[in-house]
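Page 47, continued from p. 46.
Same chain as before, 385 aa.
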Amino acid sequence: MNNFEYKNPVKIIFGKGTIPSVGKELPESARILMTYGGGSIKKNGVYNQVKEALKNFELFEFGGIEPNPHYETCMKAIELIKKENITYLLSVGGGSVLDATKFIAAGALYGGDPWDFLSQRYIVNVEKALPIGAVLTLPATGSEMNGNAVITKAATREKMAFGSPLVMPQFSILDPECIFTLPDRQVANGVVDAFVHVLEQYLTYPVNSPIQDRFAESILTTLIEEGPKVLANRNDYDAAANFMWSATMALNGLIATGVPQDWATHMIGHELTAFHGIDHARTLAIVLPGIMNIKRENKKEKILQFGQRIWGISSGTDEERINRAIEKTVQFFESLGVPTTLSGYEVPEETIGKISARFKERKSKLGEKEDIDYKQVADILKDRL
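Result:
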């Protein structure tokens, strides 16, 4: 196991009926900006619950944050923060709203263009940020318990990530009953997103970390068991609760401790969203099987372990077992209604060249061994035509 440091200061408030407690977590003197998305929180009752809980606070609102939050939209929120002297941000929505809120929190106190945090991620660091709280309405990204965020710059069709412990929420409220009103597409996306988050931290190479491996495998198994239950019966509270907590545990840093991480699936998938607007989770469902296939030698031991422990694949040659592990993963995604090929989203082959060129220009080296260059990015995507 590799050396590591781990600290997670986010307070989690989990369970039915917990949303009204949001007022107890906020400073009484705070000037609060509530951020949210397209308005679903007004239909499912979450908006009214939050408004009622905060009726004695100075509360401002900023809605319209996109499913892949736009830099341009975030900059409008930063203007409002400066105008109204906002001192606290409250994200009410899914991971995209929270990602945007993290960017806004850092950008509001930055003297330059906040896009620097993404375009110069390892050069320009977040030095200060407004405090954030979250009411999570959609399990998927794990953003409620980490300091990561992904933002899209619509003007240039770029989707990039940044991270800082300074933008971790001070608290996150997770009420599984929020899942009851979600459409099938969002539930399926959430299951796939969480599943791939785990595999980015698990499907690398062995470093003798059995606890992390089995933590990861327990999350994968739970998603396989509970995800379909949520899709079949949205009012199954226990399944919803297990799904919601799995998505949080998938990316709160715990299973990443002491192990190598990949994240090539995400980096390539971001480009498919940037060029074609495909849902984030669905880009992951496209790219992951390609990476498993093209990098099968690098990931051989962990794919075989994954196949045996998750899918029960224990017979056949190594190559046959790897093929079956990939097939079972694809079948699981597609059983949720999530296509796993580029043709399933009508992505033309010419997009592969455009994405490969971006990685060439950036001189990017992806993967846990930094051995995926722009040529292999093209190979991975061609594998998914």
